[in-house]
Amino acid sequence: MTLQMTDANLTQEEISDLVAKQEASYEKALYRVMAKKNEYINDNKDYSAKIYALKKIIAINKRAGNSYAVKRDEVQIQSYLIAKSMNELLRDVLIALDSKDIETFENKLNQYTAEHQKEFSLITKRDYKEFLNIAGTAPVIQALRNNVREYYALQEINNDLISYLYQYDKKMYGLNKFSKFHLVNVVITISSINAVHALDTLLSTVGLSVVKLIIIISLIIIIFFIRKLFYYVFERYLMHSYYLHEYAEEILKRTQRTIDILIIVINLNMIAYVFNDFSSSTLISSFFNILYTLIITYFIYVVINTVALVNLEKFAKDASSVKAELINVGIKIVNFFIFLLGFLFTLYFAGVNLTALLSGLGIGGFAVAFAAKDTISNFFGTLAILASDAFSQGDWVEINGKEGTVVEIGLRVTTLRTFDNALIAIPNGTFASADIKNWNKRKLGRRIKMSIGVKYDSKREDIKNAIVAIREMLQNHPDIATKDTKYEHMAYQRGKIAKLVSKDDLEGVKRTLLVFLDEFADSSINILIYCFSKSVVWEEWLQTKQDVMEKIMEILEENNLEFAFPSLSIYDETKGCSQ
Q: What residues form the membrane-spanning segments (predicted)?
């Protein structure tokens, strides 16, 4: 066909027809080569034997003086060398089709083509066109002319080969993916249908083909069913897992949306892979790897926090001795490392050199540490709070004039809810150097202290009897702590260190009860009442205190005593009496 196109007598229409036929023949040749790729790779035609034989004949003809016969065989050898070089190029390209991505394949194609062209230029540096016009009908002259035509035709074929390799590089790379599954013939059959071929012509403008569309639709359907299967397998695994079965229901509920997003991203990744001729560019790979990293990081975060949430609810129901703030801080530390690892993987897939980055952190660590000294101080303050057990979440504390209930001990700050319902955030570093008053660190005894003033005209005996009666009332009161009130101290468990301290003071147990005549004040004789309620709960303490006060009023009435109030007596010297 190439020889026919060199014929000067062809019309433009005939040349166009031959070009179209040539295009079709090259496409069919491509399909044929791809269908039998391994055979072409293993069939290495080097023409060595033929070239060796021709060189022997050339030597004989040179001695005989047959110059045309020598040129005939020289041209034939050059044609064999061109054919050999083209076969080697084609074989190298077919092997390169197994590259991990199309970019690598295209780089190898450029390399092999450049090497081939360098070799080709050395083979074809001799010009034999002068022998096309030599006169004569002798067989040797005709054979020489034919060999020269084939020689130049092979050069044209070589140029066409390189041109079509670049033209069909993506198609070849895509077809090679099917060759692994022995589906090349199926794809070729589908693509050879006239209607499909017409559609492919239209779809090729957007990088698609009918085969690609079939594969994409098939992948969507397959992944949809795999999604159902994945849910089933994941649920079965959670239900039968020794460590996770009790959290299975919550994990499934909280991770369903994340799994759906992951399935969608996988689907998009597969579609992009097919659309890009079954190859993945560096940019696309990085983009989807970053997406996978973000989704998996969030998935791990959800699973761990779901497990923590279920355990926290269980601890709350069981009144566990495990400190809630310790769990909260532990969860935050774990979450920090989860997101740190996710961030590092994201940077890695984005192309950042982590070795250089981490090395740089070592150099700039001093500056970072200095800039973040308050954050570091607060973090160690958190550890100090947890280690010292000075207070816990829910405790009523007072620090630097701020008073309220501890809401949460965080990594950086501790939040208090004041009694007027405001929220205060105190940096944890503050607690290292501040006085902390914890009203909840008491197990038995909340103080009731009052001073009762009676009038100066009260009789001594009545006051004495009232004091005795009040003391007896408190001693026998069911809600007042006394020396006879029993309290079982906390037993030291294995692993705890015994301390040489008062157990009452360590655990917050007070049973002091005092009722005494206290002082002669300006307007009254004061009786000191100092005792502790058994309950430390504010409402129960108020109820006990109210009951004690009512009983004291009753005792004073029974002993003819009246409460004194601030008063002023005026002495009139002229009358000798006071008013």
A: 181-199, 205-226, 258-275, 287-312, 333-350
